[in-house]
Each structure stands twice: as C-alpha cells, then as structure tokens.
DNA sequence: AACACGGGGGG
DNA sequence: CCCCCAGTGTT
C-alpha cells in the first residue's frame, strides 16, 4: 500500500462533485473570470494573494485601466506601480509585479510562460500562483494549494498534521495533484471550484456544514473533520510561541548577610514570588555591575543584569520590600533564576 | 487583540 | 530544511 493511500482515504467522486458544485453554485462573474488572458489572471492572483475578493473588486479594473498590458506595466516606473497599489498592503507584491512584468518583456518575448515551472521562476510567483495562471490562462493540468484549498482538503480527508511543517504541506501538495481531473476541459471549473468552495462554504469559521446560512455542503457525508467534529481543529497549524527578548535589571542590595527582596505583583511573570527590585532611584551608594546571565522561559528569553550595592544601613524603599538573611531566603517563594543566583551569592560569601 | 494570508530571503 | 517578515482585513 502506498503512502498516499494510507494518509488519504478514498473520498468518492470528490473531483466530479466539486466540478458539479462549481457549475451550479460557484462564482462566475468575477472580473478576472472573463477574458482570461495570462496578464489578467496573473494580476488577479497576485492581488488576491493577501487581499480579500471584496477589496480586489474595487481595485482590479482601475489597475488594468492604468496598466492595460504587461508591456505598459513593465514600462512604468516602480513608483507609479506602488502608487496604484497603495492601500492594499504587502508592497513587495507591487515591486515584484513590476519586476515580473519586465522579466516577461525581456526574457519571454512579452508573453507569459505557460509552463508552471517556468512561471514559478518569475518574481512574486510561487507554486500555487504559477499553477493558477497555467490552469486559467493556458488550460494546463496543475494543482493549486492556497490557504483555502489546504483547509478544504485537510478537512474533508481529516488531515490533522501540523501544516507549518514542510513535510505535511508537501503531502497535501501530492494529494492535490492526485485529485486533479483527467479531462482538461474540467480543469478550470475544478480549480475555480476549489477556490470558491473554500472561500464561500468551507470557511475557517462557521463553515456551511454548521451554518446553514452559507448553504449546504455537498461533502458532509464524507468529510472526516465534520464527521469527527474536528472542524475547528483542522487544518492544524501549530503556532510557535514568539520568544520575546527582555533585559531585566536586578538591584542586589546587600547589608551584612542580608539582601533586600521585593514581592512581585500578583499579575505577570513570577506573580507573588520574591525577586530583587528591578529599579531603584534613592540609594546613591557605589554600585557594581555583576556578570549578566540568560534565563529562558517558553515565551521569553531574559537577560538578567544584576547590579550589586553594599549598603551601610538597611533601607526599605517600598511596602512590598523586605530584608532577608541569606540563610532564610531558602524558605521563600523564589523564581528559578533567583534561587540559582542566591546560591552563587552564598558561594561568593563563603569564599570571602 | 489575535489571527489569516503567499512569497521571498537569510541562516 | 526552518524562521521571519510584511500590512490589511476579519473574527
């Protein structure tokens, strides 16, 4: 048994059902669905990469009016292109759009290539966009796999692997290719159907299977995510916690064998635990920077910079502060780096 | 406020 | 391969 079959069980007639669905319930009147030249298709795909259909609808015709051909676009200045793009965000797209137009003019005799692999070599065109242009403009047999399509395929086949992993996304790519219709005449309806079904029915939140207002889902009977009540878990994208880098100062105030500690607020990091004060302004005794060290938490990488001050008298600067003998700190609630640090203080003291 | 999106670029 | 980024719109 091949790997493909093990991962993606048979969903009967998916391809044909989707084609039928598209013909009946898909979108047929979007401006870029008429007169599907490579230039028009390409422009719409780039605009749609990170921008909603409703926004692109307001911009597409205007853009084409100003840059009616790939030649005119390539001949424009990048500033003119950026000006026309303004408000749509991700301005790298506009710069690549311009570069791509120039490359089509100089490297491809002014004609967009039809081979997805060649399209993919152009600026701003990745695997999915290349396939879309090849299908819509040239009727080629190529698979798209954008965010909408990933959601549709992952849900129906119950593919619950982490899609931030290249391996799993590649498995989905293979699956997308296996699903392509064999009749070339079906490719446009099929590809458009994938896009439309994902955008209007198999939406991220409240898809049609649980929201009748969106219509009915033709795949309800076989959709693994729906049948196993995992619509909200699939597709799975494990977001890596962003590790924030933080510098923290510890004022290590020492008087004889005692240190001044501060009970931290009940909210935030190390809530309610005892720590060195992170700031102080009143004490003017000479201070000495100690070696900084790192402490790593799930979501933070802290660089702790202790500053030692030997005080002649015990002062308490705030209500939440208290002096402790080093012999007693062991009984306090201390965050990990505090207990490690205090132990090292002990060693220093013993060594003295 | 958190999340979603395709592609590029650097390590 | 992995990570990070960019900007607007949606939930």
TrEMBL record:
SMART domains (UniProt xref): ENDO3c
EC numbers on record: 3.2.2.31
Keywords, ordered alphabetically: 4Fe-4S, DNA damage, DNA repair, Glycosidase, Hydrolase, Iron, Iron-sulfur, Metal-binding
Record Pfam families: HhH-GPD, NUDIX_4
Single GO MF annotation: oxidized purine DNA binding
Cofactor annotation remark: Binds 1 [4Fe-4S] cluster.
Record-linked InterPro entries: A/G_AdeGlyc_MutY, DNA_glycosylase, Endonuclease-III-like_CS2, HhH-GPD_domain, HhH_base_excis_C, MIG/MutY, MutY_C, NUDIX_hydrolase-like_dom_sf
Coiled-coil residue windows: none
Family affiliation: Belongs to the Nth/MutY family.
Function (record text): Adenine glycosylase active on G-A mispairs. MutY also corrects error-prone DNA synthesis past GO lesions which are due to the oxidatively damaged form of guanine: 7,8-dihydro-8-oxoguanine (8-oxo-dGTP).
Protein name: Adenine DNA glycosylase
Source organism of this protein record: Polynucleobacter cosmopolitanus
